[in-house]
Amino acid sequence: MKSTSFGRAATVRTAMLAGVAALAIPTAAFAQDADLEDQDEDVEVSNVIIVTATKREQTLQETPISVSVTTGETLEQAQIRDVLDLQTVAPSLRVSQLQNSSSSTFIIRGFGNGDNNFGIEPSVGVFIDGVFRSRSASSLNDLANVQRIEVLNGPQSTLFGKNASAGVISVITRAPQFQFGGSIEASYGNYNNVQIKGDITGPITDSLAFSVDGSYNKRDGYGTIVNLDEDINDRDRWTARGQLLFEPTDTLRIRAIGDYSKIDESCCVVSTLVAGPTALAVVGVGGQLSTDFFSYESYLNKVPVNKVENYGGSLQADLEFGALSLTSITAYRELKNYVDQDVDFTSADIVNEIRDQKVETFTQELRLSSDFDGPLNFLLGGFFFDEKVKQDSSLTTGADGRAFFSLLAGNPQVFNGVEAALGLQQGSIFSPGLLTTEDYSLDNTSWSVFGTVDFEPIDGLVLTGGFNYTHDKKDFALTGVAFDELANINLVDAFITGATGGAVTSRAAFLALPEANRNVLQALATTACTPTSAQGTCNPLLGLTPFQFQPPFLSIPNAVEDGRTRDNDLSYTLRAAYQFSDSINGYVSYATGFKASSINLSRDSRPTFGDYRPGPVRSTFLAPSSPVLDGGIAVPNLNTGSRFAGPEDAEVWEIGFKGEWDGLNVNLALFDQTLKGFQSFLFTGTGFQLNNAGEQSVKGFELDTRIRPVDGLVFTFALTYLDPKYNSFTDSPVGDLSGERPGGIPEYNIATSATYTHEFGASGNRLITRVDFSHESNTDVNNGLPTFNASLGNTRVFKREVNLVNASMTLALDSGIELGLYARNLLDDEYIQTVFDGVAQSGTVSGYPSAPRTWGGLVRFKF
């Protein structure tokens, strides 16, 4: 049962919660928090960690779900600065850095979505101090003053108002204290890495306390833009946060938090894995591209700009009245993200992109929970979410664009002839300047009612039922303009117009031809769609089709598409947990989860197949009847694609075992998890394809162990085994993947560590040495690339294996001074993070190499 008090009479309990003692699975460490030093010596905390994964305060061993916890002390020792590094200690979690500082993907048990499209609902929810962060860019800055991080595996719907179909990352920071204290830390590492962080806390009055913390992180880039002699993959970020804690009575607690963070960096190093035939054209216009994948050398025509501003505030109020507790969390946040980069990743000036995004989010959560002495307890909550997303973006054709595409066509004067034949102004095709502009907006409002009931019919047996009813609505508007003259002409329709002497200039005119001309009509249509012919009759214009990669955009809302989604869902959880003995707990559960529809905020957002059916080679004249066509709103070269993906439904069966003995802790969870309508998301070159994969499943287990053979020595070992499968995915960008293993999901993930604390007698001085190792077994990076595999008929799929060793040593003196050394990726392991088709470079494959070894030293003072 929960027993919480907020007054000074609850000092011991508060210390246990704030100190987050030693057991941290999979990264175990002894609690040495200063808040515990003055407490009663009889308080036993060395084997206890309190978590709030179930929205109740329980020990990790008592919590009947699969959750891994990393303490603030472990974060310090392992030099984990942000959530990108968290995956090295949480094996079920994977974080993938994409093309800029703000684009990362969180994946749990193999499920997750790319966050480089702000219309995508995250499958993994990130909460910081109970506040939902709707985009990964708002949670990527350095972690400061963290008490613990909980990673909850599997669908989380009945305890978090914002449904998370794959799992939750919950970051809990330290609240202000009524005892004066703080810390300051400075470190210096290779690549001139300077990091400074600090915090201070203390009382203002007997009932009001404060805390202020901040961090600064600046580093030279570990990559080089060779032709510009500039760094890339640098660090330049800082954070600041202030808190107030008001406790006017023993039953009322109010916590206010305000924070601001900023990132201004150049990211990321892109190298070439396969230089396709287009590489000759790059060189032909005086450009270069990187061919040594792990050299960290790039060739770009400009230094990329990545700027992120993230700020907001929250107010949490906790009120106890008798056996009931009421919690309210109100928050408002803003995120601004600006990207300006060369997207062909060569030193030739071919294509550049600007993306300017803003996200405003308001959330309100209200929870009522009980702490009755009887067998029945409950939690009932409501959650409101309101978000506005605004994005302005554009592609620009560079000064080398026309010459580059002319070389690909095999004739430097080819476009002059095309312009003359089609009646276009000379020099207009691929002329320097705007290629596309886009204006996207998304308004998302949702509310949910959620809750759980715990029933304990006999001692040790707890039966739990939970539910979450969610109503979600999205209204979106997408407008785009394609400026390239060639892309605005359908080559089949243009041939038909020319072949009829200008008599047929529209679909209506084509269909209105006399009945007697039907045979001629059919022959003309066949010829128009034939690029080559043994009889010599063909459409010579079709050879230009590959150069129409940015066709006109059909804006939405329109007469056929209303630009709205409306989703409703009831998710639930059923669980039985039993305490077999003082040392052994077990549980079995069945849970469902839900993620609402996602919107494709990219230039690849096109009508669904039911709303439009393109003709051969995207012809409008030859297209069959459809609402878009019949409504007269079709634009040239319109194709079907992925405006949005429908809801994602998750379900998971899980059996768990948790054992705790003297010197040994073992947690084991076996699961069978399925996502129906999984929202598949893939970069296609200059945009993104979003659609529902029929069904994806994963079976596996998670094992966390902690062994303390002697005082001062702790070993941890965590293993995740995953056996995923696309049960049904017929319309993937690389063909039918039904029955295949999804790429990017390793079979085995391992996180293990050894920590030894040597105490120098009774002096209070300690030397803490830690070594940890994380491993991802060899696996395909993805299931293939749309252009590389399709156009070349090449089934080659790139692989990745990860073996990271990190180490640290800290001398902690009784005076509060700490001196440390650290190294991340100590053995300089090299692996591919991800790969993608070269932009406007058919046959070229680019990718992101892993980060090199980093090391440094630090000095810290705690007072």
UniProtKB/TrEMBL annotation:
Its main location: membrane. Residues 60-168 form the TonB-dependent receptor plug domain. It comes from the Bacteria. This is TonB-dependent receptor. One of its GO terms (cellular component) is cell outer membrane. Pfam families: Plug, TonB_dep_Rec_b-barrel. Residues 1-31 form the signal peptide. The keyword 4Fe-4S does not apply. GO terms for biological process: iron ion transport. It comes from Erythrobacter mangrovi. Keywords: Cell outer membrane, Ion transport, Iron, Iron transport, Membrane, Receptor, Signal, TonB box, Transmembrane, Transmembrane beta strand, Transport. It is a multi-pass membrane protein. The keyword Ribosomal protein does not apply. Residues 286-826 form the TonB-dependent receptor-like beta-barrel domain. Belongs to the TonB-dependent receptor family. It is found in: Cell outer membrane.
